[in-house]
Amino acid sequence: MAALSGCNLVVLNPAGDVASQQGDLVVIATLLMLLIIVPVMALTVLFAWRYRQSNNTARYEPDWDHSTQLELVIWAAPLLIIIVLGAITWVTTHKLDPYRPLDRIAADKPLPADVKPLDVQVVALDWKWLFVYPEYGIASVNEMAAPVDRPIRFSLTASTVMNSFYVPALAGMIYAMPGMETKLHAVINEPGTYKGFSSNYSGAGFSNMRFAFLGLSDEDFDGWVSKVRSTATPLDRTAYLALEKPSEAVPVQHYGTVDPKLFNAVVNMCVRPGTMCMSDMAAIDRAGGLNAGGMAVANGILRANTLTGFPDTQPTGLCTVAEAVEAAANSGAVQRPTVTPTSASATQAGPQRLANP
């Protein structure tokens, strides 16, 4: 007990309503399981003492093999506990779904009808955390702030490998994965500075992948936003590509302005110049690919200038395989091949086309 007194039981005593409900679930599940564990442990000691070899007064029935009453107790008690646990798990799994918007601020605070959630875009980098505030046009590294009693709507992704975003005082952990976007809804109910970190091993700098979560009053949060806005450093795609490079124990950094399309480019893995976005690839595939209706979609994407946001370096058109081979042969890079169709169907398939060859 003396050793445990030094522990920070933040999971069971958090500052956020979502984490508080999750902590209650841990306590309820533990107590229900202790209804079986404690009697079994006590009976184990009782049986060992009562039926010890030196106790000649204990009942000795070597031919005993069945008791209906005992069978009912052995099976009914765990079954009832499993039913209760299953019902609680079902309800709380839906109630505490990280994608589900909050319906309350705290147990005694209903959600105001006119409240606007704070949008925060989170990117797990090697080995640091990037927080983008699209509403305010600012960003920070390894520091996040949020006003007390205001719902927070997180959008999370990663740059290279899968990671896990976790602020024990705020809510449960949620994965951040490259090429995907996950969601988390939470709220902080008490001002303070809380620890956040990655709970999923992601390489050499994993141990230092930590950040400070600041729970602030509305006035203090406005002051924090003003301080970040006063930073002259912008976060555009060039700055992001420099920040994305692996680094460890990175100090807090602030960015006064942010490219509004940066997070979407990170999710679609097309921040780097000349890279087609995954969403554009999916649009072409949905239209049937470059040999079908997708060609019109691809040309429309090129005309709309939406591939990378770098108009001076992005692809300007699409070409057939034959055109690409002809261009390479004319430059002397490759020899001009002789292509012989292997079947009539191959001849009828028509020319293939490549995006960004």
From TrEMBL:
Compositional bias of kind Polar residues: 337-350
Bilayer topology term: Multi-pass membrane protein
One Gene Ontology biological process: ATP synthesis coupled electron transport
One Gene Ontology cellular component annotation held by this UniProt entry: plasma membrane
Compartments it resides in: Cell membrane
Alphabetic keyword roster: Cell membrane, Electron transport, Lipoprotein, Membrane, Oxidoreductase, Palmitate, Plasmid, Respiratory chain, Signal, Transmembrane, Transmembrane helix, Transport
Region feature (Disordered): 331-357
Membrane-traversing stretches: 25-49, 70-91
Start and end residues of each Cytochrome oxidase subunit II transmembrane region profile domain: 3-100
Cytochrome oxidase subunit II copper A binding domain span: 115-227
Annotated PROSITE patterns: COX2_CUA (PS50857), COX2_TM (PS50999)
Signal peptide: none
GO molecular function list: copper ion binding; cytochrome bo3 ubiquinol oxidase activity; cytochrome-c oxidase activity; oxidoreductase activity, acting on diphenols and related substances as donors, oxygen as acceptor
InterPro entries reported for this sequence: CcO_II, CcO_II-like_C, COX_ARM, Cupredoxin, CuRO_UO_II, Cyt_c_oxidase_su2_TM_dom, Cyt_c_oxidase_su2_TM_sf, Cyt_o_ubiquinol_oxidase_su2
One Pfam family per UniProt: COX2
Family: Belongs to the cytochrome c oxidase subunit 2 family.
Protein name: Ubiquinol oxidase subunit 2
Organism: Azospirillum ramasamyi
Gene: cyoA
